[in-house]
Amino acid sequence: MVNTMRETDGYTEEQLQLEAMKEQIEQIAVPEEIDEAIRNGMRLGRQRRRRRRLTRAASYVACLLILASVASIRFSPTVAAYVGDIPGLRSLVELINYDKGLKLALENDYMQPVGLSEEHDGIQLKVDGIIADESRIIVFYTLNNMDGRKRIVNLGEVKLVNYEHASSDFGSSNFSEDWHSKQGTFEFNSHDEVGIPETLDLEIKVGEGVEASATAPVWKFSVPVDKTRFDGMKETYPIDQTVTVEGQRITFGKMTVYPSRVGLEVAYDPANTKKIFAFDDIRLEDELGETFGTITNGVSATTLSDGRQILYFQSNYFRKPNHLYLRASSIRALDKSKLEVKVDVDQKQLLSRPDDRMTLTGNAFTGEEDLNALVIRLKNEDPRDKNFHYFLFQTDYKDASGQVFQSNRMGSTTGEYQYYIKKANYKGPLTLTIADYPSRIKR
């Protein structure tokens, strides 16, 4: 995207570049399969102003197949070349390369250009565009270091003040001292499917360093939303199928397909003897073998209540498969009787634990301000967990009197986990509750 907003004969430089990009796109020889996808997108556009009914003869068929082998997600190099070689769009493709559904949305002209900018103290923040539907909003931004000074810049607080039904997520925001231009995304997730307003009142704090960003002035953007782009672009399918894995019953309910993601309701039988944490390598697969994995850079699930979740997948909205299968290699789960870990603070010992892979290291308590760090080692040689860092425990913990406390800080390194607790006169032992653990079940 361009970094300035100069006016040229009544048009901004950004508008002129977009027009040039449009001409380039029109001259590109588009492969047949992509051309067909674009025609499908155009047909969808003509239908956006009315609610679409599910009249297709072919229906989704969803099932859970626990497989020993793992299928990999195949990204289309043709799409990457088609979009990535166009000046100005290449950087957007790189930003969402982790999400196949968002790439399809961009290919189908689903992004809404915005082009708003503000500049304070030599830093320019531009809102380039948005991808939005009833479930999710992704805001694309560019941060420019206009005067070239060396400084560490941090994005502190990001929120939509007129859309309280959404939570935000914006990944890494700390920029090093020597930088010129950085691009990124803000993500807002809707929990209640409340209608998105006509204008998004976006507020962002940008400061030099973490402390400065907390007290920095608020940058405000009023981002217009063209709701006709996604009006009626949602498809809902009742799955209502129950599978049993090692005696554990799992029911898959309603599946909702949006342009930005797919949401699948899942419920775990209260009579299950194990606590189910997560599915390994769960993905959607169509009849042609094309797969759409879970959301890996953003919100991957929403907890509705105890034992009920919505799992989020990359969207196949623009693919329109005839059949859809839900596949996973295994499920992380642990006996409910092993969920509590008891810690003797004075003796620095684990009085109860899931298995002998978990130990408390000798330097268990490390002073830091008003906190102590419980340092726990977990021996785990499973190759599936090689690059995975577990949040081992829930934030709540309690002492022997039943008083509940909260840990607001956790950390991990390879095989070692830090759980910070307040310095206090606890009535021992402390009880921590397992939130995730590398033990698995298979069909």
UniProtKB/TrEMBL annotation:
Domain DUF5643, chain residue ranges per copy: 235-342
DUF4179 domain sequence ranges: 50-144
UniProt key word Transmembrane helix: yes
Keyword set, alphabetical order: Membrane, Transmembrane, Transmembrane helix
InterPro entries: DUF4179 (IPR025436), DUF5643 (IPR040680)
Superkingdom of source: Bacteria
Regions crossing the membrane: 57-75
One family name in Pfam for this protein: DUF5643
Keyword Ligase among record annotations: no
The name this protein goes by in its record: DUF4179 domain-containing protein
Species, as recorded: Cohnella pontilimi
